[in-house]
Structures are given as structure tokens and as C-alpha cells.
Design a protein that fits this description.
mainly alpha, two-stranded antiparallel sheet, 5% strand, binds protoporphyrin IX containing FE
Length: 220
Amino acid sequence: MAETGQISSTTQASGGATGPPQDAVHPLPVHPLYVRITHWINALAILIMIGSGWQIYNASPLFAFTFPKGLTLGGWLAGGLLWHFAAMWLLIVNGLVYVTLGLATGRFRHRFLPIRPTEVVHDLGSALTGRLRHDDLSRYNAVQKLLYAGILLTGVVIVASGFAIWKPVQLRELAALFGGYEGARLVHFFAMAAIVLFLVLHVVMALLVPKSLRAMIRGR
Ligand code: HEM
């Protein structure tokens, strides 16, 4: 699938040779429909996972703080667990659709690669001094590439560590990868923290560049 913002194509009217030729420019959407649908389902699933995860954390805190009750979901431990497991399946199935189509269509390669450290440093400098341009929404700058590829990997880590906490006996090899049950809990917590940090930056950027938000909703 072509990953350019715009292509020209010549179409023939259904009336055959007698019909008027319809030479038209068909702009491809900046984000294909599957990306937009999976993105917003993912956003919903992540918000439920975070709210219910904070509820579960509060029942047995890892650190010397708990999350404000008003930011938690589920009302109590069992309620939090129910929300967490329900949204987990939504997150996983939706994520698999997004990743499978992203790999199969070559979109990941075109959109997220290559990530060159020199370009990241350059684009970060431009972003911090307000000189980053957003004319072509069909191409990500190096900082976006790094953040999006990074958040995809974080997604894999948070799901894997979550499974290790959920079934530490049956999945003991997986739990061992994280240094056991307690290690998996720590990894799960810090992956959550990374996602929350990403989310705050990501939403601020989307609000600062509203046309990028429109493109993620309407495609254009
Ligand atoms: C609920 C608030 C959210 C808003 C308003 C939002 C908004 C956006 C917008 C506007 C874009 C397009 C950015 C661009 O063109 O540069 C985008 C892309 C993206 N967002 Fe979000 N997002 C949200 C939540 C999330 C969450 C929770 C995640 C993952 C944890 C996420 C991951 C991504 C990724 C990976 C992309 C790139 C998608 C691709 O091109 O395949 N977003 N988001």
C-alpha cells in the first residue's frame, strides 16, 4: 500500500469507452481507516487500563504513594480487576490488528523507519525552539518516529509483563525474563509510567497541531 499523502490516478467511467474519462486526483488519506479505528480503540483501551490499573495498584502499592481515588476505575479491587481484564483483551486484539496490517502493508517501515540519531537530535532541537514544521502530515519527523516506535515496544513489554504477573506459575519462563513476579510488577509499573508520560506529551502535541488531530479523525 502506498504511503504517500497524495497520488494521482486515472479512472475510467463505468460506461466504458463511451463514458467520459474521469481523470481525477484521488488524495489518499494521511492515515488509512484501519489506523484511525485501531488508534481510537487503543486510546480508549489504554485509558481504561490505566484507571483500573491504578485501582489495582492502590490495593497493594509498590511505592510509598497511591493514586487519587478520583482517577481510578472500578470502585474497589475486584471492580478494577474486571475492567483491567476486559480492556486487556480489547487492547491485545486491537493491537494485533494494527501491528499485523502495519507490517503486512509496509506502513511501519515507511512511517517509522529509519530512525537516525542525528536526525532525532536535530528535530528535537527544532521542536524545542518552535522551528519544527508540520506541512506534510504524511511523514513523521525523527522524534515522532522514535516516540511511536518506542511506544509500540513499550506496549509489547507492558502486555508481556502483565501476563507474567497474571499467570506467574504457568508462565514462569516469561516471569523469569523479568526477574520473577516482583520484577515483572516493577517493569509493568514503569512501562505504565512511560505510557502516561508519552500520553501527556502526545495529547499536548496533538492540541498544539490541531490539523494532525483532524487527520487522525477524518483521515485528511
Ligand atoms: C486519547 C488521547 C490521544 C490523542 C488525542 C491522540 C492523538 C493522536 C494524533 C493526532 C496522532 C497523529 C499524530 C501525527 O500525525 O503526528 C496520533 C498518532 C499516534 N498515536 Fe495517538 N492519541 C491519543 C492516544 C494515544 C495512545 C494512548 C497511544 C498509545 C499508547 C497512542 C499512540 C499513537 C501512535 C503509535 C500513533 C502513530 C500511529 C501511526 O501512524 O500508525 N495515541 N495520535
